[in-house]
Structures are given as C-alpha cells and as structure tokens.
C-alpha cells in the first residue's frame, strides 16, 4: 500500500513511535504518543541536507518502511523502519538526514560514548539512546546551564538507531537493517492475511489495506497504567483507548486474535472504579473518569462468544459478568433520580458529544441509555443462566422489564422517543437527533408498529447515499462537519445495522452495510464522514472506523 503519512501515521504494532507529515507546513516529524493526546508528541523534525544545502524531498511510505527521495530522483537517500517496538532504525546514503529536536526547557542531549547520545525528554518522562552503528553522526547541541539551546543532529552514510526507554538503557545487538525490515514485513503480512479473511476481490482492497494497517499500527505495548497491549483510536491525534470505542476494536479482533481482543475489555475492567464506573479513557500515564460511556461490554461480549469459543470460558465470562453487574449498580445508585430513568451528565457521556438532544441542558434522561441498560440486563440474565445463577437471572430479567416499562412511560409518545432534562425531568422538544432512534437495539422488545415507525424514520429522515446522518437532514441543528450534528459515524452505523438485521429488517441492514463499505472508498478510515459527500472528516486514521469496516466486510463475505 502507498501510505500517505499526512493522513495515516507510519508506525507499527506495539510502538509509541510514529512519523507523520503536517498538512499545512508539510514538515515531517518523528513523534511519540506516550502520555496520551494531551501530551506533546513531536520529537524531531526531519530534513534532508546535501553539501550543506537543505534539499526538497518527498516521502514514500508503505506498511513496512518509510523512504526519502530527493525531488525528481528515483532512488531513496534515506529509509526508516521500526523492527522492534521501541526501536527506530535509519539507513542513510549520500546525504545527511537532519534531526532537529522540538525540545522543552530541561530537555538535554549528552554524548556518553563515541557515537552514543542519550536524550532526556522531561515532559514525556522518556529517554532516547541515539546510536551510530556504522556511519557518520554529528550533533550540534550547545549547553546552556539547564539544557541545550537547541539540538541538531546529522546522520550520514550508514545505519543508525534511536531506542526509547523509561529509566535505564540496556546494551544489545541490533538486527542489520535488511534483517529488521524482513522481520517487520513478516509480522505485518501475518496480520493483513488474518484481517482479509480470504477476501480476493479488488473492489474494497484499498479500504482493506487501510483498515488492516491502521488497526495494526495503532496498537501500543503495555507500560505504566496499561497492563496489556492497547489499540488506540489513532496515532495521529486521538491517542488514547476510550471506553465504548474499545469494544468495536475488540469485536473485530475476536475471531483471529482473541487474547488481544479480551485485553481491550480487560483494560477497563482492571481500572473500574469502586463505584462501578469504567474510566472514560486510559493511556500509559492517565486514567480519566470525567465522562462515563454507556454500558455495551456485555452486548459486545455476547457477540464475541459467537465468534470464538475462547470467550465462552467460564472464568472470562464470569469476569465480564461480575464487572457488568458493578456498572449496572453504578447507574442505579449514582445516575438515577427516584422514579426516573438513568441520566447523562454531559453529551460526552453518551459518546454523541454535541448532539442536538443535549442542547437544552443537563442532566438528560435519554432513550439510548435506557435501551443500552435494558439490553445489558437481558444479556446479564442469559449469562447468569449460563453460569448457574438462577436467582440472578430472574432478577436481571425483572430489572430489564421494569426499565423497559419506564422507558415507554417516560420517553415515548405517538411521535416517537424523546428525552427529558433537568432536575424536574422536563420534556425535550428537540427530536431531530439520530440518537433518539437507538431504542432499535431492543427491537425484540418493541411492538412491531413502533419498530416499523423507527425504520421508516431512519429511511426518510436520516439515510443518505452514504449511510445514516446523525442529525436529520432538514433539521435546523444540522451542521456541515458538525461532529454529531450530521456526520456519519462507524460505531453508530454498526449498532443500527446489527439491530436491523437481528430484528427482521435484514434488507435495510444490508443496504446500510453496503453503503458504509462504499463510503470508505471515498472517505477512507476517518473519524466521521460528511453524509452528503462522503468526505472523511477530523482524524483521518481511526481504528473504530477500520474495525467496523472489517466487521461489515466479513458480514458481506459471509452473506449474512
């Protein structure tokens, strides 16, 4: 694949290193995604210098390597690979590859031995060892009391390595450049073949290549708060693992990589608060509980059990079961007013940050949250039966029944579902958000006439050439590139398709599935998409989009 590093960073499975090009300045940077997306990520700006003159160059990247070409020349002058998770390898010929540090006040470079420099990066709590294995390396880094004024390093005619670590560097033998390239190529080939699942047609191959690479290259290794490998949303802008988002990545991994799939769920079960709430997001340094996403772990786990017997293991099922019970208790004890339905305290809680439903105020009783809880109670009841917990199975079914009756009583009328806001639970008149149609996920409980109205509404008010807009197309709240006020989102698309196909509306579900597959050929694997043009919006290298594409492609291949 020809990789455009303005859109998709060059990286590899397990690594915090990545390389990307800024769209406006066209500057190319080595970056590091430790510390999450609030931490500075730029380490070095890369340039090519020949005979003392800065040269124009272009970058050509694949899944395995990134090469620099002088303008109008056919042979590369420098190449970069990531053969191990914490190692960047450089091979440079006939030019100087210049590394200019984007350093902070206390960041400091020091030469420890000939051709061996250690760079301390204070804001990231990170150290780099920069080594000359067999070439020419010089550093211009004048010292000024507490750090270098600047750092300008030149690599020429040889093989060089940058290795990252937290505390102490351990000397080692490094693979030769060609051997390292062969190693990473073999690793990626295995991943790609597992993602393609025998797909041989040309139609969706560009999307398949992008989705496979983005999911592979967005994984980071365990360190700090991360106790296992985590698939970040992206290494471009949004480098954390978010609750809710993680579930769609886990679902895609379940068939071929069950251990890695389970790890995406376990990261949140291991960091679950004593109240029962999962964190909003986790990275290697931070665990944030600012927002609490809807409970879909059980909903996803039920599907994972269908994909791989690994998930039917009683110990794992018990872990998900007990953890989900705590989540449900959290909503009952901390998010529910007497006689009311559980509520959101911010749009970000729902994952639909700025949806029109939340424009009136907070807290909001929302039918999607109630539906996720009802679905979770129903699934917990089936899990309890499987685990031999007969009394709890009946208890969860009763709780689902009670919530369902309250949902219809408080948030449904002849015009459909709506929300309530504030301490008094006043009716929200704004009904133009797609989020109000998510009760379709409990379609097996709804009367057929309600379901028929929901499906008709989807087709008439939200469906475009490319899929389901998140705000009604004629709504006064609709905004071009409006985040949750119009653009198409992959996880939401998956939820609707899955619900439609499992509740008797297979034709509509398959049509939306095929539209989403086609959409990726126009908009790539972006965070979201313009519903009228298909253009990819915001972060253009997103794993949940990639995972949903791969899930839906597999669904199409199976003819389900």
TrEMBL record:
GO molecular function terms listed in the Swiss-Prot or TrEMBL record: hydrolase activity, acting on glycosyl bonds
Key words, A-Z: Glycosidase, Hydrolase
Species assigned in the record: Neobacillus driksii
InterPro entries referenced in this protein's UniProt entry, alphabetically: 6-hairpin_glycosidase_sf (IPR008928), 6hp_glycosidase-like_sf (IPR012341), Glycoside_hydrolase_63 (IPR004888), MGH1-like_GH (IPR054491)
Gene3D superfamilies: 1.50.10.10
Keyword Ribosomal protein assigned: no
Origin superkingdom: Bacteria
Name of this protein: Trehalase family glycosidase
Ranges for domain Mannosylglycerate hydrolase MGH1-like glycoside hydrolase: 239-545
Signal peptide residue numbers: none
Listed Pfam families: MGH1-like_GH
PANTHER family recorded: MANNOSYL-OLIGOSACCHARIDE GLUCOSIDASE
Family in the record: Belongs to the glycosyl hydrolase 63 family.
